[in-house]
């Protein structure tokens, strides 16, 4: 089992955007390891969770999980099909938590007109409370870097954030459209703008999405994102 001590080490060990996104944890007390082609990144605080992000061949992932996956409130995160294979290899039982989606894309994307990065977050919180009260990203939260938006009559009616981006994976969160302005394509416009900006800066753009949110998944697919199910494994009680 080999310790990966730098972001470059992680990038050399894994091409998976999920792992490369988690690599940012090395700058905030995290750690990473490689074993038999699998990689694990311990992220003490990433999108509000203490995570162990894993990817690679099931046997290697199982070994990394056995060595580093137990701890108070630690959430081993990986692709759902991988989690099911890994759980079958573990000497003690693990159960699957609620799955959710990861979507990513590379390349370039033209930005839409009339969308911009906001110079102030005024209006973002009221919009989120009206349209997305369960948002993971909020103004002023650690890791949330900036907000884009669309205004109508000087009122912010659509927004999305760059949050928790790593060295080579930009991350989009907090996508919201005011209920009185849905059906006008504003969600697609603000997501296209943020995606275009993050692709230019990082080369890859990614996001989380609820796996039951078919309209959101369809919108992101139209913007070129590919979907995969993620889940968290929990020690069986």
Automatic annotation (TrEMBL):
InterPro entries: Acyl_CoA_acyltransferase, GNAT_dom. The lineage of its organism: Bacteria, Bacillati, Actinomycetota, Actinomycetes, Pseudonocardiales. It holds the Pfam family Acetyltransf_1. This is FR47-like protein. Residues 72-237 form the N-acetyltransferase domain. Gene3D superfamilies: 3.40.630.30.
């Amino acid at each position: 089992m080999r310790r990966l001590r730098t972001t470059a080490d992680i990038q050399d060990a894994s091409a998976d955007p999920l792992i490369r996104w988690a690599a940012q944890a090395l700058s905030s007390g995290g750690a990473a390891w490689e074993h038999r082609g699998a990689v694990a990144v311990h992220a003490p605080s990433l999108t509000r969770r203490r995570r162990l992000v894993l990817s690679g061949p099931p046997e290697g992932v199982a070994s990394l999980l056995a060595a580093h996956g137990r701890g108070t409130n630690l959430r081993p995160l990986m692709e759902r099909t991988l989690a099911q294979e890994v759980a079958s290899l573990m000497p003690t039982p693990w159960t699957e938590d609620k799955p959710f989606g990861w979507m990513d894309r590379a390349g370039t994307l033209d930005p839409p007109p009339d969308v911009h990065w906001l110079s102030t977050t005024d209006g973002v919180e009221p919009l989120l409370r009206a349209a997305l009260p369960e948002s993971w990203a909020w103004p002023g939260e650690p890791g949330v870097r900036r907000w884009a938006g669309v205004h109508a009559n000087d009122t912010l009616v659509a927004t999305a954030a760059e949050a928790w981006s790593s060295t080579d994976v930009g991350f989009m969160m907090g996508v919201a459209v005011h209920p009185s302005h849905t059906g006008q394509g504003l969600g697609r416009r603000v997501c296209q703008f943020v995606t275009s900006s993050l692709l230019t800066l990082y080369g890859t753009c990614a996001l989380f999405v609820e796996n039951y949110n078919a309209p959101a998944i369809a919108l992101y697919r139209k913007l070129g994102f590919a979907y995969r199910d993620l889940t968290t494994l929990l020690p069986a009680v």
